[in-house]
Amino acid sequence: QVHLVESGGGLVQAGDSLRLSCAASGRTANVYALAWFRQAPGKEREFVANIRGSGISAYVADSVKDRFSVTRAKAGMTINLHMNNLKPEDTAVYYCAAKGVGRTEWGFWGQGTQVTVSS
User: Fold this and answer.
1) Given a cut of 90, is residue 76 above it in pLDDT?
2) What is the overall mean pLDDT for the chain?
3) Which residue has the higher pLDDT, 29 or 37?
4) Which residues, other chains included, contact 90 with Cβ-Cβ below 8 Å and sequence gap of 6+?
5) What are phi and psi of 29, to 5 degrees?
6) Distance CA 67, CA 84 (A)
7) How far apart are CA 52 and CA 98, in angstroms?
8) By C-alpha distance, which of 64, 52, 54 is closest to 18?
9) Which of 21, 23, 42, 93 is the most exposed place for a label (fewest CB within 10 A)?
């Protein structure tokens, strides 16, 4: 079992920056990739970014790649989502997810952290 805990969400104004963190614990030796998804009210959950392996391979969705980046902390199993120039449409619950080695699905999910961007 892998346990994921997100932090860093909050209420900000348009143009502000936020950094979300996701700390993984438990059977993390089997974790191949960690990712961020988000779900806005009334919308489907969408992929935001992921990072694989030791952190050398990262991918950010085209819709936010000019403003968001994803990094992995040097110590521990923690990834960060750096969000700049936030817009009201970035308002959503942001979820961290983990994928095991050899798996195609994101099998583990955190509880989510709310990000609200006011105009």
Assistant:
1) no
2) 94
3) 37
4) 38, 64, 83, 115, 117
5) -60, -25
6) 5
7) 10
8) 64
9) 42
Locus of tokens 């942001």: 94
Cα–Cα distance measured from residue 101 to residue 104, given in angstroms and rounded to the nearest whole number:
9
User: How many Å apart are CA 4 and CA 66, to the nearest integer?
Assistant: 26
7 pLDDT exceeds 80?
yes
How much is the pLDDT for 94? 98
- CA pair distance 104, 102, nearest whole angstrom: 7
Q: CA–CA separation, 47 vs 34, rounded Å?
A: 12
Residue 30: what are its φ and ψ, rounded to 5°?
-95, 5
Amino acid identity, residue 82?
Answer: H
Would you state the structure tokens that stand for residue 89, as one six-digit string?
């449409």
Determine contact, residues 42/62, Cβ cutoff 8 Å.
Answer: no
Of 19, 21, 20, which Cα lies nearest the Cα of 76? 21
**pLDDT digits over 34-69, tens only?**
999 999 999 999 999 999 876 678 999 999 999 999
